[in-house]
Amino acid sequence: MVESIVNSIIGAFSGLQNIAFGKEILVFIISCLPILELRGGLIAAALLKLSPITSYIIAIIGNILPIPFILWLITPIFNWLKKRKGLAKIVEKLENKALSKKDALEKGEFIGLLLFVGIPLPGTGAWTGSMLAALLGMDKKKALLAILLGVFLASIIMMFVSFGILGSIIS
């Protein structure tokens, strides 16, 4: 599913591929997006035939960029949005979606958050982990460190998957 979304985004922004650093910008943008994040960015980089090392750095930066904003601003933004007609239900749905994952963090907050972000499964990642940490009132500095370490763990796993390193090791 992620690969088809990434392919759609690459197709929609195919003009970027013709400018200097256009492919790199595309990987950066995809890595910043919720749901796709670093996983999608590295898949895009592999599809665009970019260098694994360059792609790795760009995807990590793109995935890390939104984390502090989510950790420190999502709660005030959600509280403000809840006061607006028509938006309260959407915010509550987002909160409930994030909080449905809280069981993964209940015991051992730091390690739980690190693994939640670091193991690349659907519905996990830096965006959801940051939102969950903020909604649960976790210490923001500890949460930031756990999420950053989780992003690095996910990046290593996705490098093996996206660039076929795993396949060459197994063969």
Give a description of the structure.
By secondary structure, the chain is an all-alpha fold. 72% of the residues lie in helices and 0% in strands. The chain is built from ten helices and no strands. The chain is globular and about 45 Å long. The two termini are 26 Å apart.
Summarize the SSE layout with pairings.
Blueprint: H1 2-12, H2 22-32, H3 37-47, H4 52-64, H5 67-82, H6 88-99, H7 109-118, H8 126-135, H9 140-162, H10 165-170
Helix pairs in contact: 1-3, 2-3, 2-4, 3-4, 3-9, 4-9, 5-8, 5-9, 7-8, 7-9, 8-9
Percent helix, as a range, is over 70%
Average residue pLDDT: 87
H/E series: HHHHHHHHHH
Gyration radius (Cα, Å) is: 17 Å
Low-confidence stretches: none
Count of discrete domains: 2
Number of strands: 0
Q: Short description, anyone?
A:
By secondary structure, the protein is mainly α. The chain is 72% helix and 0% strand. It contains ten helices and no strands.
Descriptive terms for the model:
171 residues; mainly alpha; 2 domains; 72% helix
